[in-house]
Amino acid sequence: MGRPFANLGNSEKHSRSTSSAPKSGMFAEIKNDLIAMAGEFIGTILFLLFALGAVQTANANTSANLTQSDDQSGTEPTGSDSNKLLTYYYISAAFGLSLFATASIFYRFTGSIFNPSVSLALCLIGAIKPVRFILVSLAQMVGAIVASAILDGLTPGPLAVNVGLGLGTNRTQGLFIEMFTTACLVLSVLMLAAEKHLLTPFAPLGFGFTLFIVMLFSTAFTGGAVNTARAFGPACIQGFQDYHWIYWLGPTLGALLATAFYVFLKEVHYWRITPGQDSTDVSESPSVQPVTSRMSRNSRDQVRADNAV
Fold first, then answer.
1. How far apart are CA 107 and CA 113, in angstroms?
2. What is the rounded end-to-end Cα distance, in angstroms, of the chain?
3. Compositional bias (Basic and acidic residues) at which positions (predicted)?
């Protein structure tokens, strides 16, 4: 390190350096928190702009088909169930790919993948401090509103990307669907990014695939929020349902559930259960010599028995 007070006397240099060091560290930490906040804000905008853009595209296309069908025959288009399944797949894939792309850019210095529930889990395990948790969560919520507003201005027609219960799903069912799907996503972040191992550099790919698979399940029933910011942003533009609270409570409970399971795994030293699981050293591969030797010995014994007969 340099000597910033080299021209001062020893006593004055000591007093000024000791008083300025904590301030320097504090300001550096605030600076890092603000950079992370800015990254989460921009990243959330990009993630949701492209993901929600796919939802808007799917819903606009469905509405156009329904309108055309009504003009022609006044009945529902043929194969509507298949079209719905394809739409669910399209939306789920769009969210997964958007998360993969944007997390690949931002997670290295923000780490929260644009989701307050993930931020909460990282705070609870000590990966980020409470101040950063508050800042990045605020950035995620505001970023979601901005992304929804931009999408509303860029696309024709009314915005149609809000989440909602479907297929007769009641509020309790929706709450627990959001809880379990969010828990799965949060756990993927904890095990792929918070835990350091050979797969950590590929964590964004794991995030994207996890979001894709949980949305394949939840999109038809809850709209597949899995993220309070994703539900909150569009609702600020389109309006809030009276059950909007499930998209706050469900993901929060999911984050707590995933965190509890992660802490349990750490307490039981999960890495000792299958040691060497991440190793690429060929010498740690299972030895098959005892098995082949036993098989050869059994074969020789069988030959001797046959000859004796």
1. 6
2. 86
3. 298-309
Q: Which of 82, 102, 62, 84 is nearest to 211 (CA)?
A: 102
DSSP for residue 275: T
> Which residues neighbour 16 within 8 Å (Cβ) at sequence distance 6 or greater?
5, 8
Residue 12's pLDDT band, with cuts at 50, 70 and 90, is: very low
> How far apart are the C-alpha atoms of 61 and 112, rounded to whole Å?
33
Alpha carbon distance 51, 45 (integer Å):
10
Written as one string, the DSSP assignment of 53-103 is HHHHHHHHHHHHHHHHHHHHTSSPPTTHHHHHHHHHHHHHHHHHHHHHHHH
Instruction: Give this prediction's pTM.
Output: 0.80
Q: What pLDDT score was predicted for residue 309?
A: 58
DSSP 106-154: HTTTS-STT-HHHHHHHHHTTSS-HHHHHHHHHHHHHHHHHHHHHHHHH
pLDDT for 100-120, tens place per residue? 999 999 988 887 789 999 999
How far is CA 84 from each of CA 44, 101, 154, 159, rounded to the nearest angstrom? 27, 26, 25, 19
Q: What is the rounded CA–CA span in Å between residue 226 and residue 140?
A: 14
User: Which of 189, 162, 126, 159 has its CA nearest to residue 247?
Assistant: 162
Mean pLDDT of 66-91: 59
Domain 26-68+81-278 sits in CATH 1.20.1600.10:
no
DSSP 3: -
- Estimate the crossing angle of helix 10-72 against helix 228-238, to 10 degrees: 60
* Residue 111 falls in which region: left (phi positive, over 0), alpha (psi -120 to 50) or beta: left
Residues 122-134 pLDDT 10s: 999 999 999 999 9
| Of 24, 46, 216, 39, the residue nearest 147 (C-alpha) | 46
pLDDT value at residue 307: 64
**13, pLDDT greater than 50:** no
Rounded Cα distance between 105 and 101, Å, is: 7
Angle between helices 171-189 and 203-222 (to 10 degrees): 180
